[in-house]
Amino acid sequence: MTGQIQLVIISIGGGHATGVMEAGTQIKQSLVKIFPHTNIRIIDLDALSDRKPKYYSHKDYDFDAVHRQLTEGGHFTKTVAIKNANDANSSDPIELVLLCGCYALFDERINNLAQLKVFLDSDGDKRLINLINLRKIATGEELSELLTEYMDHLRVEMHKFIGPTRANADLIIPCTNDNTGCAIITDGIVRVVQDIRGSGHHTHSFAKQSPLLLDFEAERMNVEKERYYDLA
């Protein structure tokens, strides 16, 4: 039989050096184990930001191109052979895309396509420390240059452009060094896929479908996980 592939978009945003791509990679690894026959890919939004000069704003990104990549690639209309669901080699009519980057929640058109929008939250001090570690600062001159960039550009960019996208998130996860946040996001994605498979039709907003966000059964969530929710 034949069917259509549905693109399921999960947008993961956050401030500088909050580990957005690292989280996306870890989540993908978990999803591959849960959905072994599902095509899962990551789009690194920050890697697409190569405009010169650098504006330290949304102007550094070509959201039109990203939107076209998500909507004009035939993902919503591509007809494929769908084998018996019990066949271990059967292809899955769902494709998961993890859109990761500081501005993943910025563009309204892309937000309307996403089934789940996540923001990784962190305070400024931690972001700065992470930047120092990521850039492997070894000299006073390098540190001085980074501090200048942070104070003159990155901090302003966070407050004016990236931080406000927090309001667009369905789920806000504190940026930490453990795996609990990624586990919660993975659980949310599994719920989205299950809902889509159960309904048999497209759903463009997980928040609309589940006003309480990740409405998990209480017995599935332990106390450690619960402290990560931010429904403010």
Question: What's the SSE blueprint?
Answer:
Elements: E1 2-4, E2 6-14, H1 20-34, E3 39-44, H2 63-71, E4 79-81, E5 94-100, H3 108-113, E6 116-121, H4 124-134, H5 140-162, E7 171-174, H6 180-199, H7 206-209, H8 223-226
Parallel strand pairs: 2-5, 2-6, 3-5, 6-7
Antiparallel strand pairs: 1-4
Q: What this model shows, in words?
A:
This protein has 232 residues and is an alpha/beta fold. The protein has a single domain (2-226), classed as P-loop containing nucleotide triphosphate hydrolases (Rossmann fold), CATH 3.40.50. The chain has helices at residues 20-34, 63-71, 108-113, 124-134, 140-162, 180-199, 206-209, 223-226, and strands at 2-4, 6-14, 39-44, 79-81, 94-100, 116-121, 171-174. The protein has a 5-stranded parallel β-sheet with strand order 3-5-2-6-7, with helices on one face. A two-stranded antiparallel ribbon has the order 1-4. The longest helix is centred in the middle third of the chain and has 23 residues, at 140-162. It is globular and about 55 Å long. 29% of the residues are buried. The model is unreliable at 74-89 and 205-225 (pLDDT under 50).
